[in-house]
Design a protein that fits this description.
By secondary structure, this protein is an alpha+beta fold. The protein contains three helices and ten strands. The chain has a single domain (about 1-210), classed as Double Stranded RNA Binding Domain (2-Layer Sandwich).
Length: about 210
């Protein structure tokens, strides 16, 4: 009993976090995943990965997300390539914080002379604005909505167009305001039991003990 009380005295300051906007310690990341796909499970081939936002293509944070996505694609029978003419598929990665901005990113491109067009959210990358939960007129917590999107197109099904075969979105609310630090958790949620249940919202939790919230 004495040992238990001593342990509680040691860790209680870490758990409370009363004097900061963020808790000092968190115990996991939770989120939801919504997927629409047309995958049979036997797809194989080379996939070219691109950032939805052209300005982030060579960014260090993007390269971290691409590395994590690549790891899971390899586990599911795909091989990544940097050569457009070798690609059987192309995957677009988009990540960031939900913003009050109504701007959209328009992707209008050709890969292996196949047309691809779609619109998606223009997510905030730095300096996100938190939202507050309140109760009885008092703010009880602050958080950020972190989002990861992955769209995958088949480049061999149609002579003129890339055909969308996977559209997956993960969103997670939490106190971490560094999108780079979320890459492991967000990609883990996205690729858990890949590709996921078609046209279903799934709740996913990734247990993880972290100090200083990220």
């Amino acid at each position: 009993m004495i040992r238990i009380l001593s342990l509680l005295l040691v860790i209680s300051p870490l758990l409370v976090g009363c004097y900061s906007d963020k808790p000092i310690m968190t115990f996991g990341t939770g989120g939801s995943r919504y997927v629409i796909h047309d995958l049979k499970g036997n797809e194989r081939g080379n996939i070219l990965l691109k950032s939805t936002n052209k300005g982030l293509q060579g960014d260090l944070v993007y390269r971290g997300y691409e590395k994590e996505v690549t790891k899971y694609l390899l586990q599911n029978g795909f091989k990544t390539t940097t050569e457009e003419n070798e690609a059987d598929y192309v995957g677009f990665i988009n990540y960031g914080f939900l913003s009050e901005r109504k701007d959209k990113i328009i992707v209008d491109t050709k890969i292996k002379n196949k047309s691809i067009y779609f619109e998606t959210q223009d997510l905030e990358i730095t300096n996100p604005s938190p939202f507050e939960k309140s109760y009885g007129g008092y703010s009880i917590s602050k958080g950020y909505k972190r989002i990861l999107n992955f769209r995958m197109y088949d480049l061999n099904k149609d002579e003129n167009n890339g055909i969308l075969i996977l559209d997956s979105k993960v969103d997670s609310v939490g106190v971490c305001d560094k999108i780079g630090a979320m890459r492991v958790d967000l990609t883990t949620m996205m690729f858990k039991k890949f590709p996921g249940k078609n046209d279903k919202v799934e709740k996913i939790t990734i247990p993880a003990l972290r100090v200083n919230s990220c």
